[in-house]
Amino acid sequence: EGHNFDIRKHLLDYDNVMNQQRTIIYGMRKKIMEGKDVDKTILDMMSDLTSDTLDLYVPDKAKASDFNLDGLNMALSAQFGVQINFKSFPNIDSEIITSSVGKAVKDAYDNQKRNLGPFWEQLQKMLLLQAIDLRWKEHLARIDRIKEGINLRGYAQKDPIIDYKKEAYIAFEALHGVIKADTIEKLLKVQIVNKE
After folding, report:
1. Do 101 and 54 touch, CB atoms closer than 8 A?
2. I need a surface site. Which of 25, 51, 131, 163 has the fewest CB within 10 A?
3. Which residues, in sequence order, are CB contacts of 158 under 8 Å at separation 6+?
4. Is 137 left (phi over 0), alpha (psi -120 to 50) or beta?
5. What is d(CA 157, CA 78) in angstroms, rounded to the nearest whole number?
6. Among candidates 108, 103, 59, 58, which has minimal Cα distance to 79?
7. Residue 7's pLDDT band (boundaries 50, 70, 90)?
8. Left if phi > 0, otherwise alpha if psi is -120 to 50, otherwise beta: which for 49?
9. Do 151 and 160 contact (CB within 8 A), yes or no?
């Protein structure tokens, strides 16, 4: 009985972690379905992705010779559909790069918003919901795989619950990252084509 009680207790601990994540995702979906702050959500996602990209290729305290401007341009093209000719700048430092990238991404966003016109709001919601739904399913499969092997950690003198919570948290953070990347990439690159 004690053994079965421990098993049920651990299952509840695992379920609590998933319930917290489910609550966050479903809350996010509900906000989008109701149309609350969708534009703000998109702008926040875009800002986060821009910052992450800059941090990766143009570290804050690095020297200009350490900047990976080719890598930055490839990442900007893949994520936002923009390119910047950094060779045209007389002096280059992280502030100039940051402001140039921010302006280029914001311009791409404004152009897309203008080009899509009346379809903009509907596309924002649709792409966000698609990304959430697709990536949430993948996340659930990943969590199942984590859960399957987690009890073996006990043999390595580790607490499976603590390891599970850590890995579930890391997976959830990764989920947010791919939702942002998917949504912004599609939103900035989608084109409306005439029936002809």
Report:
1. yes
2. 51
3. none
4. alpha
5. 43
6. 108
7. very low
8. alpha
9. yes
* Structure-block tokens of residue 41: 């959500």
- pLDDT tens-digit series, residues 136-187: 999 999 998 888 877 666 666 677 778 888 888 999 999 999 999 999 999 9
Per the CB < 8 A criterion, the answer to whether 42 and 184 are in contact is: yes
Sign of CA dihedral 42, 184, 113, 33: negative
Model confidence at 5: pLDDT above 50: no
Go through the chain and tell me how many residues it has.
196
Residue found under tokens 């009985």: 1
Q: Which residues contact 61 (CB under 8 A, 6 or more apart)?
A: none
- Per-residue tokens: 131: 């990304």
- Other Cβ atoms within 10 Å of 64 Cβ, number: 13
The Cα–Cα gap between 184 and 50 comes to: 11
The distance of Cα 17 from the centroid of its chain, to the nearest Å, equals 20
Side chain identity, residue 186: K
Burial of 159 (0-12, 13-18, 19+ CB in 10 A): exposed
Residue with tokens 């702050």: 37
Q: In this structure, which amino acid lies at residue 28?
A: M
Distance CA 40, CA 33 (A): 14
